Amino acid sequence: MTAARPAGSGTAESGGGTPRRRAVGVLLGVALVALLADLLTKQLALSTLSGRGPVSLLGGTVYFTLTRNSGAAWSIGSGHTWVFPLITIGVIGWIAWMALRLRSLPWAISLGLVLGGALGNLTDRIFRAPGHFVGHVVDMVSLFDPYGQVWPVFNLADSALVCGVTLAVLLELTGRQRDGRRAADAEPDGTAEVADEAATGSEQRGRA
């Protein structure tokens, strides 16, 4: 006979959050979709825009123009390309740390977008010319002018990063925490975090 589980014990739902496994799955799924979409659009840009001038859309609001960027936006840091893979690896480590208590679907989407965008550009840095870890990122979209003087030429990975960071800022401003609680519900003495860790341990023991 299995003993009845006390109400509200050992589950992520008791705190109003999403089970951690599901939240991490959403994070990884969003990251994978963003990464694959970025790789696909870059390949399309290389096959259709190479050797062509800028392609204007929407009356010059958007341009498709193929560029290879060794730096960040507006080619900032172009002489230190090797630094950007290290920064990206640090971002990936930060996301892994954030995922340890992840029980919020909005946070999972935000972190997934950031992870997918970071991996998209890291792939370019590692595998594209002129060499490993100093590769140039493929960019292809420009707003308002074809040469990135008004707005930097960007790619889908950059868009995913911007959207993910923007969503994270909004979640912080509205008090949504990555464990599924709101800031107003968090206990100031930190007992909520202790209870959360205890619930996680109880859930793991229950599966053992």
Query: Biggest sheet, open or closed, and with what strands and sense?
Result: 3 strands, antiparallel
Total DSSP helices: 5
Q: Structural class of the helices, strands and pairings?
A: mainly alpha
Please state how the strands of the largest beta sheet are arranged side by side. 1-2-3
Terminal-residue CA separation? 17 Å
Question: In total, how many domains does the architecture comprise?
Answer: 1
Q: What is the overall silhouette?
A: globular
Question: What's the gyration radius in Å?
Answer: 21 Å
Task: Give the fraction of residues assigned to helices.
Answer: 40-55%
Low-confidence stretches: 1-15
Order of helices and strands: HEEHHEHH
At a glance:
The chain has 208 residues and is mainly α. It has five helices and three strands, in the order H-E-E-H-H-E-H-H.
Describe this structure in words.
Keywords: Aspartyl protease, Cell membrane, Hydrolase, Membrane, Protease, Transmembrane, Transmembrane helix. This protein specifically catalyzes the removal of signal peptides from prolipoproteins. Belongs to the peptidase A8 family. The chain has 208 residues and is mostly helical. The chain has five helices and three strands; from the N terminus they run αββααβαα. It has a three-stranded antiparallel beta sheet. The radius of gyration is 21 Å and the shape is globular. The N terminus is likely disordered. Helix 3 runs antiparallel to helix 4.
